[in-house]
Design a protein that fits this description.
By secondary structure, the chain is α+β, with helices and mostly antiparallel strands. The protein is built from eight helices and 15 strands. Helix 5 packs antiparallel against helix 6 and helix 6 packs antiparallel against helix 7.
Length: 290
């Protein structure tokens, strides 16, 4: 099965054909007027005021972190790219799942107009609060996993290219899960002797580049490969039904924190509690998930 690619889409089409049917889709052209599509390494290295960011080190599944200046991090990426001995090794740090636009609001103007039509109305006014940001080098890797709260995922590629391997959630058990959301199986380098049931998997693969938006349905597993230096970000978001599914996941082994965060968003999207009232309790999720 291939991932559908569309050049334009209405909100009705998006929800009826993809969200409600748990089908991934790549949407093109919606962000073509963004200034962010012209972001370069030098743009960030030459800011009037350098900013500090929190990067992940070693195994990103373990959550080890370090605070560095953004210019320092970009120097590291450039050094990695220029080192011919690195071959297929990933950089030693990864700016991954970082609440960039919440902490550095001056960059929001570069991602306007934002396609809020793809989000439930509850998210529209303060969409930037829910963005997680990524900047990485070639060979950066996020192992196979699903998003912990069973949220839907809109993934925006700003510059560079990434490859996604996608596996529907109903095939999760054949991915040999470790803990709640990470898989032992590596679909890019399959070991069928060690993981024999993974032969039954039906993965999809798609490459996205600057200006593309990838929709990943609630619970869908995904492995992400950096094919070049790249900048991207995503928004995890709920509908009433996915928030309720997230609440029920506590009976399937989800961490207890998930019940708390999913219940908060359920109060918003289903019970119409304002996003301003919810976010002060929810914002710790942006660090928890990282």
């Amino acid at each position: 099965m291939e991932v559908t690619i569309v050049e334009s889409i209405t909100k009705t089409e998006f929800y009826e054909e993809f969200v409600n049917k748990s089908r991934p889709v790549v949407i093109r052209n919606i962000t073509s007027s963004w200034n962010a599509l012209n972001w370069s390494k030098n743009y960030f290295k030459n800011l009037d005021n350098d900013i500090k960011v929190t990067v992940k080190t070693k195994d990103i599944t373990k959550g080890d972190k370090k605070e560095v200046f953004l210019s320092e991090y970009i120097d590291l990426l450039e050094e990695h790219e220029n080192d011919k001995n690195n071959n297929d090794k990933p950089p030693s740090m990864y700016l991954h799942d970082y609440p960039f636009f919440y902490r550095h609001k001056q960059f929001l103007k570069d991602i306007e107009p934002f396609p809020v039509k793809l989000l439930p109305k509850w998210y529209e006014k303060n969409y930037q609060n829910y963005i997680q940001f990524f900047m990485g080098g070639k060979n950066s890797l996020t192992p196979l996993h699903f998003d912990t709260l069973y949220t839907h995922n809109l993934f925006f590629q700003v510059t560079g290219k990434k490859k996604f391997i996608l596996i529907p959630n109903d095939q999760k058990d054949d991915c040999y899960m470790e803990g709640w959301r990470w898989a032992k199986f590596d679909p890019s380098n399959p070991d069928y002797d060690k993981f024999p049931n993974s032969k039954k998997l039906k993965p999809m693969e798609v490459v996205i580049e600057g200006g593309d938006i990838l929709y990943i349905p609630s619970g869908m597993l995904h492995q992400v490969h950096g094919l070049s230096y790249s900048i991207s970000f995503n928004i995890d978001w709920h509908t009433s039904s996915s928030a309720f599914k997230g609440i029920r996941s506590i009976f399937k082994g989800a961490p207890f924190q998930n019940l708390y965060y999913n219940f908060l968003i359920f109060l918003g999207v289903a019970c119409k509690v304002s996003s301003r009232a919810i976010f002060k309790y929810y914002k710790s999720y942006l660090n928890y998930t990282s």
